[in-house]
Amino acid sequence: MTFRGRHLLGIEQLAPDEIRALLDVAEDYAAFNRQPMRRRDTLAGMTVITLFYEPSTRTQASFELAGKRLGADVMTMAVAVSSVKKGETLIDTALTLNAMRPDLIIVRHPASGAVNLLASKVDCAVVNAGDGRHEHPTQALLDALTIRRRKGRLHRLTVAICGDIAHSRVARSNILLLGKLENRIRLVGPPTLIPAGARELGCEVAHDMAEGLADADVVMMLRLQKERMDGAFIPSEREYYHRYGLDAAKLAHARPDAIVMHPGPMNRGVEIDGTLADDINRSVIQDQVEMGVAVRMAALDLLARNLRAARAGAAGAAHA
After folding, report:
1. What are the Cα distances from residue 195, in Å, to 171, 201, 209?
2. Partners of 219 in the beta sheet?
3. Quick one: which of 230, 237, 222, 265 has its CA closest to 54?
4. 55 conformational bin, left if phi > 0, alpha if psi -120 to 50, beta if neither
5. What radius of gyration, in Å, describes the C-alpha atoms of the chain?
6. What is the distance between the alpha carbons of residues 161 and 175, in angstroms, rounded to a whole number?
7. Predicted TM-score of the model (pTM)
8. 204 — phi, psi (to 5°)?
9. How far is it, in rounded angstroms, from Cα 294 to Cα 278?
10. pLDDT tens for residues 8-59?
11. Cα 140 from chain centroid?
12. Are the CB atoms for 166 and 195 separated by under 8 Å?
């Protein structure tokens, strides 16, 4: 198994073989999760803490479920009623949690780089569940697994990522992952929502949906990140949907077998037509949710293996 990381902080640090290794393990867990009995003792005796400074439904629930299905003790730290509200810093929180000797900590934080900082202060494995505009690695991995399962491969595909690219950590992680695996990436959206330097990342850029979706194998829609916007980036939601919201007419420019994705939560009638979002022949949005549990089980499993190996090595050296 070629997954070497102590932490999972971003796609940027992963080699292509590590990405494939994690997806292969996740593939096994996807099959496991469809069995009547869905519990293993892979993480028996280990403690997982989830620490979410931002609201989450899919990510937090799937990490908790992943930990429990692997047999870990899972503790959800309620940030809203914790000492964070009394002014405790991230570093002090990290030191407090570290003193409790957890094995894995899963963190979501509104500041880019905050999870990396926390990881430098603890002795356990850390998973980035989204930090500011920076990265959301497990979302990109579950998207990759969904694509691979539906398209039969994860290379030399044309992937159109549409909408609010500038504020999206999901977009950044997907751009990095899909680029490492030799896919053609096209960013589609209004100029105000396309980040500077997009072409330097190896992406094509289009400001028109017909051009951007032409011959696409995968159409990935993104949520408008209003909470990260300072000022007016779009004239109105109605105008945005007219020009950039995905509907059947716009999707007709993609390949006939193109799949439609969205990381959620969706704003129906703003980013995507509700009927299209629910079309089981084109939409893989529910598949993404299902693969989220499998990918997060794989991440916890592989990080736990590396953590145990490191601890065994340290114990051996101490006895030598």
Report:
1. 11, 10, 17
2. 160, 260
3. 265
4. beta
5. 20
6. 9
7. 0.94
8. -85, 155
9. 22
10. 999 999 999 999 999 999 999 999 999 999 999 999 999 999 999 988 999 9
11. 4
12. yes
